Amino acid sequence: MQILGYVDRENGFVLMKKLPFFKPLDSIIIVLILVVSVWSLTFFTREKGFQAEIFIKAKLVSRLSLNGDEKKFILPSKKGDIHVLYGEGEIRILHAPCKHKICVKHGAISNTREKIICAPSGLLIQITGTGSLNKDSLDAITF
Ligand SMILES: [Zn+2]
């Protein structure tokens, strides 16, 4: 049997013997458990956002409410117009002047902290705000 610790009568401390806790395999398992738990936490705490923020080159250019009917928003960029469709709780890029259209293929986003990035246009769309847009929540938001 392994001695885990003993009471040091003089100092009153329980001294723990150094345990070979973190063998390489153990630490891999611990990391895996951590990753899975963090992932499941973010997965299950997904919340619908009600607002999308649009950034061009890290500068906030527009803040759109996702409540209400679908609307189209045209964002001029140096390379051409970016067409954004938003409303009914979602936002997506319909058309962008970039080559690979990764942002268009990304589809719609609706959960907070979700992002659509179009690197060639320097565009970032991210969902913020939870719950529904009403007077109370508007008052509570500090920008
Ligand atoms: Zn793009």
Structure description:
With 143 residues, the protein is of the alpha+beta class. Helix content is 22%, strand content 39%. A hairpin with a 4-residue loop joins strand 1 and strand 2. The relative contact order is 0.15. Zinc ion is lined by residues 96, 98, 101-103, 118, 120-121.
Q: Which terms summarize this structure?
A:
143 residues, alpha+beta, mini-chromosome maintenance (MCM) complex, domain 2, 2 domains, 4-stranded antiparallel sheet, 3-stranded antiparallel sheet, 3 helices, 22% helix, disordered C terminus, binds zinc ion
CATH class of the largest domain equals Mainly Beta
Main sheet: strand order: 4-3-9-8
Order of SSEs, N→C?
EEHEEEEEHEEH
Strand content: 35-45%
Number of strands: 9
Annotated CATH homologous superfamily of the largest domain: N-utilization substance G protein NusG, insert domain
Overall tally of structural domains: 2
- Poorly predicted sequence stretches spanning 5 or more consecutive residues: 131-143
| CATH architectural name of the largest domain | Sandwich
Q: How big is the Rg? A: 25 Å
Q: In short, what is this structure?
A:
The chain has 143 residues and is of the alpha+beta class. Helices cover 22% and strands 39% of the residues. It has helices at residues 24-44, 102-105, 135-140; strands at residues 5-8, 13-16, 49-56, 59-65, 71-77, 80-87, 90-95, 115-118, 123-130.
How are the secondary structure elements laid out?
Elements: E1 5-8, E2 13-16, H1 24-44, E3 49-56, E4 59-65, E5 71-77, E6 80-87, E7 90-95, H2 102-105, E8 115-118, E9 123-130, H3 135-140
Antiparallel strand pairs: 1-2, 3-4, 3-9, 5-6, 6-7, 8-9
The structure holds zinc ion.
Zinc ion is lined by residues 96, 98, 101-103, 118, 120-121.
